[in-house]
Amino acid sequence: MEDQFVATEADMLSLGERLARAFVAGDLVLFEGELGAGKTTLIRGILHGLGWKDAVRSPTYNLFSVYDTVPPVLHADLYRVANTAGTGIEDYLESHVCLVEWPKALEGVVDLDDAKRISIAFEGDGRRVRLSNINL
Ligand code: ADP
Ligand code: MG
Question: For the chain, which residues score pLDDT lower than 50?
């Protein structure tokens, strides 16, 4: 478990870039934190770290986006999802680094025992980011 204060959005993007190399295909990474905590911002940094140059949009409405980086990434936002059955996300779990915001809908559907977790909390003007099961 690692814990750090992240003062700005730019620092959150840099943290994501540094984290990118910690993930391999088949990793499931659960992002926890309230609306506006910075989950999508951190994921944007991770994708930049993997060389993605184009936009990273929040997939709230389309549930997930897939990026053909190396390793390839699935970015899901399950905010409005009660159950992932039928969404097709399971098809990506082995082949992609799966970065999931609001992962509650995966509980009981996917084995979360080995999942990596990133939780982000508001702290003053910045954020407190906790990493678990992640080796940098
Ligand atoms: P989430 O996906 O958790 O809902 P977003 O990443 O979409 O959150 O939005 C986070 C918002 O907070 C952005 O508007 C960003 O500019 C702002 N922000 C302010 N400080 C930080 C910080 N330290 N880290 C990340 N985002 C920050
Ligand atoms: Mg988001």
Answer: none
